[in-house]
Amino acid sequence: MIKVSRLNGKTFVLNALYIETVESFPDTTITLTNGKKYVVKESEVVVMQSILGFYQSVNLLGQQLAEGNKNEEQ
């Protein structure tokens, strides 16, 4: 889950697993896999860093890195 802010400053939490796209129109717009869109105050870069941090915390990226290292050692 990542914490983001609406344009009015109210914060909420999104499940990063359901994020399909993050775009700047210039406001940052997050589109979920169900088509729902959220406009947030955070920049695209900050949202992407939050998503990467979430993926690492649930070990989605860590598994790929570990598997890649095993293949490189052989």
From TrEMBL:
Record's keyword terms, sorted: Cell projection, Cilium, Flagellum
Any one Pfam family match given in the protein's UniProt record, by short name: FlbD
Name of the protein in its database record: Flagellar protein FlbD
Organism name: Cytobacillus firmus (Bacillus firmus)
